[in-house]
Automatic annotation (TrEMBL):
Binding site for 5-phospho-alpha-D-ribose 1-diphosphate: A127, Y128, G129, N130, A131
Alphabetical UniProt keywords: Cytoplasm, Glycosyltransferase, Purine salvage, Transferase
Quaternary context: Homodimer.
GO cellular component terms given for this protein: cytoplasm
GO biological process: purine ribonucleoside salvage; xanthine metabolic process; XMP salvage
Domain of life where this protein originates: Bacteria
Classification via SUPFAM superfamilies: PRTase-like (SSF53271)
Name used for this protein in its record: Xanthine phosphoribosyltransferase
Species in which this protein is naturally found: Bacteroides luti
Amino acid sequence: MDILKKRILQDGKCYEGGILKVDSFINHQMDPMLMHKIAQEFVTRFKNERINKIVTIEASGIAPAIMVGYLMQLPVVFVKKKQPKTMENMLTTTVHSFTKDRDYTVCISNNFLTPEDHVLFIDDFLAYGNAALGMIDLINKSGATLSGMGFIIEKAFQDGGKILREKDVHVESLAIIDDLSNCEIKIR
C-alpha cells in the first residue's frame, strides 16, 4: 500500500500525544479512489478466510467497511455508539476512545450478529485496541466467529496490534506507524 503510505506522509498531520490526523482523505473528507484501493487490498489479504459479514464501528470505519462489503458482496453492519430505542435484541459493551478520551457504550442487534456469522471487522485506526477488544466482546456475546480484523492505519507504538496478535487474531494493517515522536511520521 505504497499509495496509502505516500498519502499519509503528504497529507497526514501529527499532533502531540501520538495523534495522527488523516481527516483530509480518510475519516472526514474521503478520497473514494484511495478507499477503493484500500478495500481491494483488504479483500486480497483476507481472501483465504471464511467471511459472511463485514462489521465496523461508527463512524470512521463505515466508509472502508462498505467498500469492502461491496467488493466481497457481503452485508455490512456497524456497531452504534448511541443506543436506539427501537433496537431489538441489543448486545452492548463499553469502549474507551483514545482520541476523545471518554468511554462509550456501544451496541449491535443480535439479529445482525448471530452464531452463524463469520465476521471481518474493518476500521480506520488501530491504536490501543479498545474498539477492537470491544468488538471481540460483542462477537463473543453473539456467538459469532471472528475471521479477522483489518485496519487502514496501525500505530504500532500504542500496542493494540500486539494485544490482538497475542490473542491469535488475524490482523492486517495497511500502513503501520512506528513512531510519531517530535511530530515526525515514521512509517514501517
